[in-house]
Amino acid sequence: MEAPAPPGPAVGAIGRGMAEEAVFYASPVRVLVVVPTYNEADNIERVLGRVREVLPDAGILVVDDGSPDGTAELVEKAAVSLGDVSLLRRSGKSGLGSAYRAGFAWGLERGYEAFVEMDADFSHDPAALPELLAPLEHGHEVAIGSRYIPGGSIPNWSWHRHLLSWSANKYASVVLGLGVADSTAGFRVYAASILRRLDLGRIRAEGYGFQIEMTYRSKQAGASIAEVPIRFVDREVGQSKMSMAIVVEALGLVAYWGLGRLFGALRRPWSGHDAGHGPDAGHGHDRGGGEQSTGAGASSATGSADPLQTAPPGRRDGHRA
Ligand SMILES: Nc1nc2c(ncn2[C@@H]2O[C@H](COP(=O)(O)OP(=O)(O)OP(=O)(O)O)[C@@H](O)[C@H]2O)c(=O)[nH]1
Ligand SMILES: [Mg+2]
To answer: Measuring from atom 22 of ligand 1, which residue has the nearest CA?
Structure first.
């Protein structure tokens, strides 16, 4: 007689040969994979196909900012064969951060419990999704696919790109006391609980700054953050949207939040905690405009009036895997 299957999510193997074999994973919670796109026609169909192979039950939401190369039409085509692929169409390029905020709000309104952040350019390998989702089952509310912990790597970056990314991470980590090795990483998972506490309308950054801000706010809100090693590969096709403006935004915002932290600590030397009441608190605006989702219509950000006041106590154990 066969032994009963162990409890927990189903994991199995698919694919015809070893080279194509991929692990699939049936999460015990409702997962939404959010993929922002701007001119990803060369990648989007393949990336959606791979995500569907690895996560057969997950919802997938593409947030497209009116890509002139027809990315959105390819998503609609792929949705027919893959199933449970939705498209949030926005009228113009409004930034990565606002695309994710719109995608998270869309998913929160529909009751998803775990949210994956993932690029469409294959820098983030869909095969790593099961490992990235696993920390949520162990009580973490955020899981970061990290390049800067043992086991993580960026095989094909130039030394100066490497140096820029590594230094930005060190700077953010020291100035904001983040306690994570890779706060600019964009391959992540959030539990719905932490997104609700964050009040997405107050998140303001767009590029790398968005990832840092989400890490910082999550920590302030008491999330337990896990890091999972990933291999980050540079995009092979399509054009990068990385720009100097995105780097400057991130550096400037970190300095601003850092000052807020410092002044907050000076004003409240007796409290000993960083609860986000610096000059940066409470002035966020979602700049994403003209949203339209396929099927169910547009959505707006949700959240409590002051999530940092309502964070549960005793959840400040930032964790590094
Ligand atoms: N909806 C939307 N998606 C965007 C926007 N900017 C970038 N993206 C998408 O966000 C993901 C990451 O963008 P990339 O251009 O790869 O930027 P990056 O990964 O920071 O930079 P590289 O490492 O050079 O590729 C990709 O899926 C892009 O298509 C935007 O303004 N709106
Ligand atoms: Mg990229």
So the answer is: 240
Across 19-23, 123-127, 206-210, 285-289, which has the greatest mean pLDDT? 123-127
Interatomic CA distance for residues 133 and 128, integer angstroms: 9
Number of domains the chain contains: 1
Let me know if residue 311 belongs to a domain.
no
Dist. CA 295–CA 95, nearest whole Å: 23
DSSP 108: H
* 95 CA → ligand 1 middle, Å: 8
Please write the tens of the pLDDT for every residue from 48-96: 999 999 999 999 999 999 999 999 999 999 999 999 999 999 999 999 9
Task: Select from 119, 124, 287, 292 the residue to mutate for testing ligand 1; criterion: most ligand atoms less than 8 Å from CB.
Answer: 119
Q: By residue range, what is the domain housing residue 122?
A: 10-296
Kindly list the protein residues whose Cβ atom lies closer than 6 A to any atom of ligand 1.
Answer: 36-38, 40, 63-65, 93-96, 99, 119-121, 123, 235, 240-242
* Spatial CA neighbour of 223 closest among 311, 155, 101, 126: 311
Q: What is the CATH number of the domain that holds 134?
A: 3.90.550.10
pTM (2 d.p.): 0.80
